[in-house]
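User: Hello! I'm new to structural biology and keep hearing that structure can be predicted from sequence alone. Could you demonstrate with Ribosome production factor 1? Please show me the input and the output so I can see what each looks like.

Assistant: Of course. The first part below is the input, the amino acid sequence of Ribosome production factor 1. The second part is the output, the predicted structure written as tokens.
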Amino acid sequence: PGHGNGPMPGDGTGSAAPERVLFPPTFSVSEIKNKQRRHFMFLRWKQQQRKEKLALKKKRRKEREALGDKAPPKAVPKTIENQRVYDETTVDPNDEEVAFDEATDEFAPYFNRQTVPKILITTSDRPRGRTVRFCEQLATVIPNSHVYYRRGLALKRIIPQCIARDFTDLIVINEDRKIPNGLVLSHLPDGPTAHFRMSSVRLRKEIKRKGKEPTEHVPEVILNNFTTRLGHSIGRMFAALFPHDPQFIGRQVATFHNQRDYIFFRFHRYIFKSEKKVGIQELGPRFTLKLRSLQKGTFDSKFGEYEWIHKRREMDTSRRKFHL
């Protein structure tokens, strides 16, 4: 791509002008009609941008080193996350109303150690291979969980059977075209029920540098960024899936990390390299959840009373507004 009229800028044939003259402030790559030349110039422009950014970084670092202790504090970069629109339902840990709700909600018996979690993991009707493997791996992450594959049995018939057998939670993994794409989490016997869209599912064998199979120790649970009243409820739902007293000797940790209303799940093991250094090893599986609705009571798609439904057109008016 150098067959245009006249020499290519900066290819050694023209005058040795400084590189920044190549792209004046009004320069637009999209105005170049020749596709090959446009692509070439775009790559050159990106390269120049990188060089300028690197040079500015070096200059700033030298200035900071020269100033030493007198250097001004580093500027905090602006992100969608830290420019979040204020939400009036953000939970204050010392709020008496929140404390009262927590003491009387459906999860209170679990947090008071009166009930022990017992989970039933089931699937959509007649699941395929990938969903089956995912359910098996999820059962090794959540202690005291049992996998049951549905064959034509309606959820409304499964729930009374679960309650009769003392199950505290029901997890349903839905699939589309053999890929897991949805998760329903229902707390028994009285709800609530959360519906999630599931994406980015990675099974153990698809994770690079994964650790050995998880042991049967009860993992720690980390819940990050569940700050609003809705987020608080969802966080408590996830916490109630795991026994209350983790076995730290197993060095396993299950993380639910909320960022921009996407809940990222990861399962790791700590590796202590020395007294001061610690590494982490991912065990898998991993997946991402997006809350679609929260329903009072157990699963009832027809007559259920919804506490919260994600309505994209009404709720997603700003990229900086989050609900969890």
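User: So the tokens describe the shape?

Assistant: Right, they're a compact way of writing down the 3D structure. Reading them back into a model, for example: The radius of gyration is 27 Å.
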